[in-house]
Amino acid sequence: MQSLFSSRKERKREQQLRLAPAAASEDASHLPPEYLSIFALSKSSPGLFLYVALSILSCGILALVGRWYPEVRVRLMRKRAQSFREAEFVIVKGRNGRWTEIEVRRDMGLQMFQSSGTDDKSVVEERAMIWFEYRKQRYIYREAFSSFQRHNPRLRKSCMEIHQLRGGLSEEEASVCLNQNGPNHIDIDDLPIINMLLDKIIHPFYLFQVLSVIVWMLEAYYTYALLILIMSCSSIAWELYSAKQNEKNLRNLVKVEHICRVIRDGRTVEVPAAQLVVGDAVILENIRGAPVVADMALVQGECVADESTLTGESIPVVKTQLPFVDAPGKVYSPDRHKSNTLFAGSVIVEVKVKCDVMTATSPRNLFGEEEPQSAIAIVTSTGFASTKGELFRSILFPDQIEFKFYRDAYKFLAILGMVAVAAFINRLIYGLRNRLPSHAIVLSCLDLITIAVPPALPLILTVGIGFSLDRLKRQSIFCIDPERINLAGRVNIMAFDKTGTLTESSLRWVGIEAANDGMFVGFSNNTGGESRMERVLATCHGINNVHERLVGHPVDVEMFRKTGWSLDQREQSTYINGQPVPLAAVIVPPEADKSTYHILRRFEFDAHLQKSSIVAIAADGASLFSCTKGSPEAIRNICRQESIPMNFHAVYRRYAAQGYYIIACATKELTGILSDEPTPSEIANLRREQVERDVMFAGFLLLQNQVKEESVPTIAMLRKAHIRSIIITGDNALTAIHVARQLDLCHKVLLIDVHEDNVVFTQVQDEPDIETMSLHSATPRRHVSTGSLSSRQRPEEFAQAASAPDATDDERSHPIEDLTRHLTHVMDQVDIAVTGAALDAIIGRYEATFANWLAGRARIFSRTKPSQKTWIVERLKRQGNYVGMCGDGTNDCGALKAAHVGLALSDAEASIVSPFTSARKSVSDVEKLFREGRCALETSFTAFKYMIMYPIIQVFLVATLYQLGTDMSNNQFLFDDLAIVLALSLLMLYTGPALHLERDRPTDDLFSPIILVSIGGQFLINVAFFIACVAMLLKSQWFCSVSKAAEGLDETFRPINSTSTNFTWACYPIDPVADIHDSTISKSYENTVLWLYTHFQFAICALAFSITRTYRRPFWTNTPYATYLLLLFCILTGMLLSLGRAGSGYEFMARLFDLRTGVPDDFRFAVWCIAMANLGCALIFEAVVVNGFVRKWVARQEDLKKQAKDLKRERSVGIGVVEDTGILDVQTGRWGGAGGSFGRIMSFGWWGTIPEEDRISHEFEMSQVERHNPVEDFYDAEDENVFVGGDSEESLRLVGALR
């Protein structure tokens, strides 16, 4: 494309222009562009005239090419603009490689600029804004860069600056913002029907159909041509209707007709939601069900919102006031301040008014007595820049996931086209030799080409997917991206979130392990035994009372209910030192002798920080205190050293190994942070890092998260189907490992984590049994890997064994550099678990090779952030895997959308965060989805094979008839295409999925040996029997050929001596009108016998391709298909065997299909026997050869390639590569050569380079190793260190695969 628009001298300048957006992206007001290249263009009258003229001269071909390839049209119609400022159009190259021409707009409006004076103030002027829109994002021309920059319409201010906006914007400021950002609406383009119709018609396939209909009309195939025309029009109409319905549904989802009350120029005004701008102060009214129309930061009050339409999570979430003070240098971020942000698309459940801490005034005083129930939120992003807008943008412009099936389909059609061209040439030569009329030659040649591409192919493929989606919908599995159903049939790695997916969403109380003065005091199953722990459990939560119902995170709700305390939120404020301070909640004790707590501040749980905190004060006027709870790792890092028990890790690890959900708790007196008489502003200005520092450890809260009943059989089913299951969770690593062991996902585990800023790995011990534990040490005497749910020991018994110091002495950690040595030496299968912190460290410190290997090798990813989940899925996809992801749609939205197949467990009918949604919220729906995906994929291949074989057989038949001097009639074509092919191809799609997942996956390659052997074998079988039928016909004594029948006839097939009254026909009488078609005799013995026989081949191919039961149920379970197939065989048999019999209705059949009488009974029976032999050979070949030998061979080759790829990836990080010649002693697990020396692992591959002297000295050394691996022998001649074994067949095959 660059050569089209730029000369060699200008390329350097254009490269700089293309790099300008990247440089501008460092500016927070701009975002990185979503295109790869951009060129400035302007109108050209000569170019437009040239383009129109060439389009007319080429009969519209150039116009079509220009429509398909805009860069060609632009090259002729436009000229290069001198600069982007003068551009009237731009053409951009998207990330998918496609070019798009976009008009540049110039709008006059108010804009804000930096003044040229020394005061550096912003001034507002009316200027022309030059901009264009690409993928619903504005690109505005900036003088500073002399190019277009992607505008960032989001609010970029600190928390304090956002609070200062609560007074609202001026009308002038709002006008400037509206002009730059555009209106606050998510506009789904309403494309005109005529444009959509034109796009459909000029699609290459439909264009071919139009040309085919024209050819058939010229040949007088009116019925067939009209049928195809009706089918094509119906298909286009259905696609247009579906597209319009999707537009309508999307428009209904984004449609918001809401009037908002905002503060403008210091007064309250009502504006439509579309007129909201970034920075607006919106007054939230306590109207249940009111929509949130933009992303907003809550600066006053509290709000309970339902975000189920965005995340699929049905539990309402509590939104609290944005903190006044954040970390220095930090600006507001919806990710970091998620608990303070109302997201567009959510719904208000309840609004709670809170007083203004900074001004010590309440909303009642600020807005008047008529506004008592209000809160204030500042708009942070609008339209497509909002969270809802980004979700819909991902729907409108999805990432292109290339599926091999569709790419190969075009290649197959190209092959068919070449077959048609060959037949075209053959027919052309035959017609010229026999001096047929030129128009007849041309039409018959074009007819062969039109037959080659099956007209019903797009319809068949679409209907097959539709049947699968309908079956899924009946099982409450909904889909918003139908093309991904085929991808579900290829998934080989399935990632699961843990909590709420593999385990129950609810948590059951177990007890507490309290600590005091740096020592654990013992396990207790109630909360009343230790005052500090009870205070944390009663206050440190984000629960709200919504319509007399506790709403909050399940952990908080279960924890608070167990305390027996109650929550009162009727009071809005309390008084400290005589000054009003807003209240989040009042916690009332169950006994009168305990003090009531007033919660003043809440720092909601942050997934990145992995903790939450509160600031509270006792009602009796005691000093302020804070309570913090979170992950043990996060809490330990902020605790005072003297408060941490020596056996902290031992107790924590033992509880976690037993699968308990562990939350560490801490508390802190705020005496040293605040003044003796703290003011409301001091409390409001408390930063989170001040509260969450130097706290006193209070103990562990233990909860139990039961594995779902359906999780165990689902994982077992996936394992049997050779689908690798992994866990990606934000929970603790040991808890995740325990759940994985319960699901039989792993047994021996190496845990990679960060310890004292070093990446280390440890071997996670098998779960200890209480009977083998010493009461004086946490070290087990022996390890028992039970892997069962019944082996969980009671916490009160376990605490006695785990509370001793130095409990982890036997669990030595090793530097990550030794991991390859360990994995090479170990003889048993070992799985890897990695924490999010370790993953970040590995990505940042080591080479990408090791990070890629770890992403594909690890079984459990724990303590992962949402962004890390997405990274893991993307990395697995890059390794050539088909990845599925199953989660609840809360903090795994990115991973669900990134995966090939994302399944959200949500109450919503169709969640926009995931391609698939399970309304039953059952993880067992994964199996149903995969079975249906494999069925849909196999159905697509079956239908495609049939639609490929049908034109091949028909082209072969027509070409043979042309060669014999005859032709098929219109009704014969109609019967073939409608009554046989179309009916069978539609009915065969209705076969349901297999009841179980098989070990092998269906192929996604149309050029796979399974497909090629199947099509090739059926073709050869059908051709062989067809030739046998032709040979038997030509050798029959009764047979009279067309050429002989035409003896004594002129070109019009009338007797040469037309005056003779006693003309003797050579074979049979010929009607020059009824029996003639396109200057050939269509009513002939050749036509009759071969047409009747070919019918059987159409039905035989349908039955043969449907006989496989690997991924679909047996074809006889598809009652309509089996019934019609049986009926069709009976009809075809009757048509063949009843030929010429009186009273059999043959006269009508002969007239309808132009069949010639006089075929003997014994010959017709012989033809039927050939058809039955053809049927038997086709079924045996498909069942034994294709679905037996070939499928097994392909599966074995895929396994070998996978094992080779895995082994090669392990070698890339040094696993299995030894420096010295040696053999692994399987008894001792030690490496030794002839001299008994240890082999040193060559682990330089991912954090260093092999020294030159080592490379030379060991260049030709050989090493031998035995490993517990399905592939035992391996050799790679390209590596300096050779890893070899015997000369087994597996080794040789593996060598070939790797080379």
Automatic annotation (TrEMBL):
It is an enzyme of class 7 (translocase). It is found in: Membrane. The keyword Transmembrane applies. SUPFAM superfamilies: Calcium ATPase, transduction domain A, Calcium ATPase, transmembrane domain M, HAD-like, Metal cation-transporting ATPase, ATP-binding domain N. InterPro entries: ATPase_P-typ_cyto_dom_N, ATPase_P-typ_P_site, ATPase_P-typ_TM_dom_sf, ATPase_P-typ_transduc_dom_A_sf, ATPase_P-type_domA, HAD-like_sf, HAD_sf, P-type_TPase_V. Gene3D superfamilies: Calcium-transporting ATPase, cytoplasmic domain N, Calcium-transporting ATPase, cytoplasmic transduction domain A, Calcium-transporting ATPase, transmembrane domain, HAD superfamily/HAD-like. Its EC number is 7.2.2.-. Residues 35-141 form the P5B-type ATPase N-terminal domain. Pfam families: E1-E2_ATPase, P5-ATPase. The chain crosses the membrane at residues 48-70, 201-218, 224-241, 409-429, 441-467, 947-966, 978-997, 1009-1034, 1090-1109, 1121-1143, 1163-1190. GO terms for biological process: intracellular calcium ion homeostasis. GO terms for molecular function: ATP binding; ATP hydrolysis activity; ATPase-coupled monoatomic cation transmembrane transporter activity; metal ion binding; P-type transmembrane transporter activity. It catalyses: ATP + H2O = ADP + phosphate + H(+). Its main location: membrane. Keywords: ATP-binding, Magnesium, Membrane, Metal-binding, Nucleotide-binding, Phosphoprotein, Translocase, Transmembrane, Transmembrane helix. It comes from the Eukaryota. It is a multi-pass membrane protein. Residues 1-25, 773-813 are annotated as: Disordered. GO terms for cellular component: membrane. Residues 258-391 form the P-type ATPase A domain. Belongs to the cation transport ATPase (P-type) (TC 3.A.3) family. Type V subfamily. PANTHER family: CATION-TRANSPORTING ATPASE (PTHR45630:SF8), CATION-TRANSPORTING ATPASE-RELATED (PTHR45630). This is Cation-transporting ATPase. The lineage of its organism: Eukaryota, Fungi, Fungi incertae sedis, Chytridiomycota, Chytridiomycota incertae sedis.
